[in-house]
Amino acid sequence: MRKATALILILPLFGTAKEPAWFNTGMNNRDIAFSPSGDVMLTTIMAPKNLHSLIAMSVKTNGDWSPLEVVPFSGQYPDIEPAFSPDGSYLYFASKRPVPDGEEASWDIWRATYDQENNTFGEPKNLGAPVNSSGNEFYPSLTRDGVLYFTATREGGLGKEDLYRATPNDTGHFSSVENVGAPVNSEAYEFNAFIDPDENYLIFGSQGRASDIGGGDLYISFNSNGEFQAPVLLPAPINTPKLDYCPTVYDGRFYFTSEQPGTNLPKSMTSMSDWYTSPGNGLGDIYSVHLDQLLKQLSAL
Questions:
Q1: What was the pLDDT predicted at 221?
Q2: Whole-number mean pLDDT of the chain?
Q3: Residue 15 — pLDDT band, cuts 50, 70, 90?
């Protein structure tokens, strides 16, 4: 097994002079999302101790990425985990912003229309019940048929946090929600689930399973005849003893976040300052690997 997994090449998206937004800032970059055109990318920036979070955007023009800027609807309230619908008509995200009826805010799934031609967003709207509940809902991910996958801490789950899916009705609203069930969900934590747009596989984070390597690991479950199979732990070096989370796939690459630190640890006050404000400091950094390469490695295990 070790020989097979050693072939995986992970590329951290550290910034360069040409591409200042790619993508890791030295702050806690929680996640990454690309518009269907590939010309817009979003990331969540987390403040220390999760005191605040916002969604930032970079735009590609003539092959160059612009510096990160906060998207117009974000910054006032905690926002995380953006995800475009496959057709590009909506942006989904999780937020703890106040709900319209004045109830105490919890983490809910929100949705804003997206104009791809002009790169503009509409006013975010809370999806409401049955997607949102008195619990917390996170990490939206969409299929081509409009089925919404998300994770939640709500009554009736199999574990501490579970994966759910919501099916749209003829009007485009979500009319029913179901727990994805075992073997994907367990008595442990399941979180941050990316669904392949064609529902061929589901990649998600989990913590507390017997197979875990460390502080939260990534698993993949393949769909066979409409049923998700027993999850497979993704191999090292994708999973580490640190937290590995927030998976997504775009244009043939698998992206994820990891809190694994770099190897060049600081030995002076100057190097400590540089290290603490740079990628590899043990906060969240975005990594990527060719999806085909990963799938081949899994088939060889």
A1: 97
A2: 89
A3: very low
Look at residue 93 and tell me whether its pLDDT is greater than 90: yes
**Gyration radius of the chain over CA positions:** 19
pLDDT in tens, 163-178: 999 999 888 789 999 9
> What would the DSSP string read from start to end of 148-159?
EEEEEE-TT-SS
> At 213, which amino acid appears?
I
> Domain containing 125 — which CATH number?
2.120.10.30
- What total of structural domains would you count in the chain? 1
Contacts 24+ apart (CB under 8 A), 200-209: 202/149, 202/163, 202/228, 203/234, 203/247, 203/249, 203/254, 204/151, 204/163, 204/231, 204/247, 205/244, 205/245, 205/246, 205/247, 206/231, 208/159, 208/160
pTM above 0.70, yes or no: yes
Is 78 among the domain residues? yes
Query: How crowded is residue 37: how many other Cβ atoms within 10 Å of its Cβ?
Result: 12
